Amino acid sequence: MSSLTTAQKLFSHPETRRRDTSTQSLSSISSPNLSSEEEGDTASEASKIEDDPFPDFLWMTTEEPHRSRRIAIMKVHPEVRKLMGPTRLTALIACSVLFLQITIAILLRNTHPFSLPFILTAYIIGGTANQNTFLAIHEITHNLAFKSIRANKLLAITANLAIGVPYAMAFKGYHIEHHKFLGEDGIDTDLPSRIEAIVLNNVAGKTFFATFQLLFYALRPGFIRSQTPTKWHAINLLAVLSFDALLVHFSGWKSLIYLIMSSFFAGSLHPCAAHFIAEHYLMEGPLDVADGDVKGLAQETTSYYGWLNILCYNVGYHNEHHDFPSVPWTRLPALRSLAKEFYEPLPSHKSWPYVTWKFITDPSVGMWSRAKRTGHGEKLEPTIWSWSTKNPSSEDDDDKEDLSEDIVIEQELTERGYASDRETEAEKKTKIN
């Protein structure tokens, strides 16, 4: 087994139920000099993995791939900073879609909710529109509509009116954790739980999951990692419920049913909803890692570059988004073009609907097809991504000299990239002046 392969605790397929439990040090891809404390943490994590009675997931001993690749790209392409920052086009589209949905909801006030015109409208137009709204809120969560944090929160709550159910402020907290702690069991609530993986590990179960994805994403956090309510949660709740009450008062229940039905279809068996599965499920199974090839380390996030991105704020550019959450959707294609040597070699999906079909029908893919880790994992050096640009073996001295630069870049992008709600020093000075 190659040294890179030991970076992965290969999950067992149901038919084999076995796992590689090697705990060899990842000297070729991670920090070469581990402290005794770090070695102890790694051994502890490996012990937890080995004792796991249901080894269905792909357990990683290394950190998520995006931090190190972010630094590597910044060192080669420092001009990527010019792509960062908000775009007000998001606010314009979000408000336009909200107006569209309210208009349709009012027009359908005298149409029976179970009639074919109502259902088709809710699926084709409403489902697409509300999926667009979900992803508008996703963009706004990263503070990519306005510079002001408060303005972004207010816009997210306004866009949330089209969904019919308050969720924008709760989503913000969970989603930022998803970026910071990608794949960390017990923190990243995007990950299916073990009981989900066991119970839904068949065609019927996977169909149920794909149909009711929003229900899982709404309920799972409460069992895994609940949030402490804030005033913004209360504002979100009050705003959406008040809007619902006004809509019912002036237009009737059928109008509200349209919005909620649209939201259900948006997260169900809808072509655009496939991105939920496509982004982080291991659709090709765990990739083995040959010497000198680190594609296996990048497999827990997969991009899609097809035309459905037009309707979905380019969320298909998911590797790019996780690498640089501070780059808005309008500039993700430019990011991919700028750093194409890093992205073009990575696997990508050709079709979102096919992803859903394969997820449901392929017995080798299921709820357990996710990469997990029991903690942060061993840090990956940015030089591991040099496979796309140069031979890292000839750059050892330069890498040591660049260590301080790596730290500066990491600190900068941790703040800018994860949409911290803390004001930057520049914003504070602007307020004072």
UniProtKB/TrEMBL annotation:
<feature type="transmembrane region" description="Helical">
    <location>
        <begin position="231"/>
        <end position="250"/>
    </location>
</feature>
<keyword id="KW-0560">Oxidoreductase</keyword>
<feature type="compositionally biased region" description="Basic and acidic residues">
    <location>
        <begin position="413"/>
        <end position="433"/>
    </location>
</feature>
<dbReference type="InterPro" id="IPR005804">
    <property type="entry name" value="FA_desaturase_dom"/>
</dbReference>
<feature type="compositionally biased region" description="Basic and acidic residues">
    <location>
        <begin position="12"/>
        <end position="21"/>
    </location>
</feature>
<dbReference type="InterPro" id="IPR013866">
    <property type="entry name" value="Sphingolipid_d4-desaturase_N"/>
</dbReference>
<protein>
    <recommendedName>
        <fullName>sphingolipid 4-desaturase</fullName>
        <ecNumber>1.14.19.17</ecNumber>
    </recommendedName>
</protein>
<dbReference type="Pfam" id="PF08557">
    <property type="entry name" value="Lipid_DES"/>
</dbReference>
<feature type="transmembrane region" description="Helical">
    <location>
        <begin position="114"/>
        <end position="133"/>
    </location>
</feature>
<dbReference type="Pfam" id="PF00487">
    <property type="entry name" value="FA_desaturase"/>
</dbReference>
<feature type="domain" description="Sphingolipid delta4-desaturase N-terminal">
    <location>
        <begin position="52"/>
        <end position="90"/>
    </location>
</feature>
<feature type="transmembrane region" description="Helical">
    <location>
        <begin position="89"/>
        <end position="108"/>
    </location>
</feature>
<keyword id="KW-1133">Transmembrane helix</keyword>
<dbReference type="GO" id="GO:0016020">
    <property type="term" value="C:membrane"/>
</dbReference>
<keyword id="KW-0472">Membrane</keyword>
<keyword id="KW-0812">Transmembrane</keyword>
<comment type="similarity">
    <text>Belongs to the fatty acid desaturase type 1 family. DEGS subfamily.</text>
</comment>
<feature type="region of interest" description="Disordered">
    <location>
        <begin position="1"/>
        <end position="50"/>
    </location>
</feature>
<feature type="transmembrane region" description="Helical">
    <location>
        <begin position="154"/>
        <end position="175"/>
    </location>
</feature>
<feature type="compositionally biased region" description="Low complexity">
    <location>
        <begin position="22"/>
        <end position="35"/>
    </location>
</feature>
<dbReference type="GO" id="GO:0046513">
    <property type="term" value="P:ceramide biosynthetic process"/>
</dbReference>
<dbReference type="GO" id="GO:0042284">
    <property type="term" value="F:sphingolipid delta-4 desaturase activity"/>
</dbReference>
<keyword id="KW-0443">Lipid metabolism</keyword>
<feature type="transmembrane region" description="Helical">
    <location>
        <begin position="195"/>
        <end position="219"/>
    </location>
</feature>
<feature type="region of interest" description="Disordered">
    <location>
        <begin position="383"/>
        <end position="433"/>
    </location>
</feature>
<dbReference type="InterPro" id="IPR011388">
    <property type="entry name" value="DES1/DES2"/>
</dbReference>
<feature type="compositionally biased region" description="Acidic residues">
    <location>
        <begin position="394"/>
        <end position="409"/>
    </location>
</feature>
